């Protein structure tokens, strides 16, 4: 365990991390790379550790979440660990009755669909995520000691995506109940999403206080919305979350799937790094986002089952497009997938990608 | 029953149909409107007729498909009937072992994943869809006689979407097997998709010969691809389908979900009408598509459960955006949803939308 460091010492150390350098416009020693959902079912060591433990149990157990978060760092040599968690963890910690069911996803016992339900949404008390904070403490110490080039990224779901789970009761195809509430009672909608933003802010501030080097705000399903609806119903709340963690001075990454039309608005919400899915070349994304945000992405996770020659070509294409984006104003590039690692992915392929990206 | 008409008489009559006028740059008497999946579970009369009959049975029974196709015309007064069918119908007719399972979707008995499997894909013989042709014959007669302003739109899945079902074995979230074949063996991919294009062409030509006034080629899942992959692996096959039915001189509508990045390429594939999902305003879509295609869309089907005031506002917004698109070169506007009617939709709302669109 390393000793506690002062904020300025932390900041100086942090800029030596390739991921933080790329996110802040400094020059990284190498192109940083990590993979969304790198800690998970693609790893045999993960399946072994998870055996006999439910998903939520693993997310709230300091030892389990520490081990699972570190596994891909040890195996792949990625430039970031991402806190092993789930979008619904802070909701559960706040006291909302839910579970994560294998093969289904989150299941909310009493979906929230009206003002009475909204009024019952609790606040997140830091002590309810004390085990997560303890895990982060261990993780930062282990990373500094054993993997000094590796950043720790905190994790939270954005208010819209949290709202969609709470309203639909779980994963959804069309989000009709979510949109119905949004359109039929905008005041109630903003009240709900505002309360969820409070929870997200509390969860992220706890992680930052515990020592994460950066945070990623996942608005997984924002791409289901038109730009006009995103701006009216979602962006103000995401912007508040990002603003209310800005005082830590650590990079804030913002990502959603299928957000080609929303990228500029997601950048304007206050992100330092905008994640891009595989549908849009990074240089095109840069033209949409404008300004000097860094970009994260964007290899199609479905490509990971193709022959290596295909993957090699695609990784090089993405790095070239990222360099073109940097040449026209992007702050930096963090290599990643365009969505999470699929469970059936061969993890040795991920290791090879890390090695390749570090040469590019 | 009306008497058979000559092709030229048919063409002259067809341009009097509002939908055909809008699709061809003529001036329709009213703004045409229909709804994707208007024939289906949102209608109690559909659920009644389907009771005791499987989905595939209904698609191959001339009487059932005729009745189901006509139901939304009678109820809503839409400007088009769309042939009641399913994307996998021509595959089944060609002899591929599959079923449509309630709650799941198509299930392919032996998914196609290699060259040996591709070599077994049969051709579609017109006699295997004779019942569909007979249904179309009845439908055109009934529509001319009882609903003279209503066009009949034929229906087929585009080769990529057919391929994705065949390869994955059914609906998919990530299309990893599809993309894996595409990337790992492009030659096999093009052979497969070429064979499926043959089936689609045969199915659409049968429908056109039987008398449909227009066709819609659904590439439901093309939006899972980047533009570069779409152009390389998909567009040539869709373009061949559209070219090989061009000699009928009837409008060809082309639609997929989440295709904001692909709209120009889908137009270039040869469509007369490009369908747009709800994510993109129609005037923005027009700027991407360019040229003088007509546009179809694009009310979010999830909005249909919102209060009428919201729907009213959204319908007016879409028509205004469509008019702006026409002012900058779009050939015309066919009002529709941005995806299919959801099963839980109140059908009386659809009727009100038809009435409203006809005033705009």
UniProtKB/TrEMBL annotation, chains A, B:
Principal location class: cytoplasm
Heme listed as a keyword: no
One of the GO BP terms on file: protoporphyrinogen IX biosynthetic process
Subunit-structure text: Homodimer.
Binding site for substrate: 37-41, 86, 165, 220, 339
Gene3D superfamilies attached to this UniProt entry: 3.20.20.210
EC number: 4.1.1.37
Catalytic activity: uroporphyrinogen III + 4 H(+) = coproporphyrinogen III + 4 CO2
Gene Ontology MF term list: uroporphyrinogen decarboxylase activity
Location of the Uroporphyrinogen decarboxylase (URO-D) domain: 32-41, 153-169
Residue(s) at site: Transition state stabilizer: 86
A GO CC term assigned to this protein in UniProt: cytosol
Biological source species: Williamsia sterculiae
Annotated PROSITE patterns: UROD_1, UROD_2
Designated name of the protein: Uroporphyrinogen decarboxylase
Family: Belongs to the uroporphyrinogen decarboxylase family.
Domain of life per record: Bacteria
Enzyme class, first EC level, given as a word: lyase
Its biological purpose: Catalyzes the decarboxylation of four acetate groups of uroporphyrinogen-III to yield coproporphyrinogen-III.
One Pfam family it belongs to: URO-D
The keyword Lyase belongs to this UniProt entry's keyword annotation: yes
């Amino acid at each position: 365990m390393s000793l506690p460091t002062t904020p300025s010492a932390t900041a100086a150390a942090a800029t030596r991390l390739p991921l933080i350098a790329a996110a802040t416009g400094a020059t990284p020693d190498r192109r940083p790379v990590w993979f969304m959902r790198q800690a998970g079912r693609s790893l045999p060591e993960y399946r072994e550790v998870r055996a006999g433990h439910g998903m939520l149990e693993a997310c709230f157990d300091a030892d389990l979440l520490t081990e699972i978060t570190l596994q891909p760092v040890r195996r792949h040599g990625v430039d970031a660990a991402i806190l092993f968690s789930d979008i619904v963890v802070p909701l559960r910690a706040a006291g909302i009755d839910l579970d994560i069911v294998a093969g289904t996803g989150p299941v909310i016992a009493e979906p929230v669909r009206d003002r009475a339900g909204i009024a019952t949404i609790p606040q997140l008390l830091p002590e309810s995520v004390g085990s997560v904070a303890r895990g982060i403490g261990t993780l930062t110490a282990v990373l500094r000691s054993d993997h000094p080039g590796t950043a720790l990224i905190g994790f939270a779901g954005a208010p819209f995506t949290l709202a969609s789970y709470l309203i639909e009761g779980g994963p959804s195809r069309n989000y009709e109940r979510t949109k119905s509430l949004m359109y039929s009672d905008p005041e109630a909608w903003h009240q709900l999403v505002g309360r969820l933003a409070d929870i997200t802010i509390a969860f992220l501030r706890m992680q930052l206080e515990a020592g994460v080097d950066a945070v990623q705000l996942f608005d997984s399903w924002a791409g289901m919305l038109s730009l006009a609806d995103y701006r009216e119903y979602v962006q103000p709340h995401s912007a508040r979350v990002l603003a209310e963690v800005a005082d830590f001075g650590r990079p804030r990454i913002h990502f959603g799937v299928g957000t080609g039309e929303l990228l500029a608005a997601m950048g304007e919400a206050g992100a330092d790094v905008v994640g891009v899915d595989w549908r849009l070349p990074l240089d095109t994304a840069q033209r949409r986002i404008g300004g000097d945000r860094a970009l994260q992405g964007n290899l199609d996770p479905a490509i990971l089952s193709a022959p290596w020659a295909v993957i090699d070509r695609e990784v090089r294409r993405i790095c070239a497009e990222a360099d073109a984006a940097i040449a026209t104003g992007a702050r930096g590039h963090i290599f990643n997938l365009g969505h999470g690692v699929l469970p059936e992915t061969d993890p040795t392929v991920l290791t090879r990608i890390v090695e390749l990206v570090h040469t590019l």
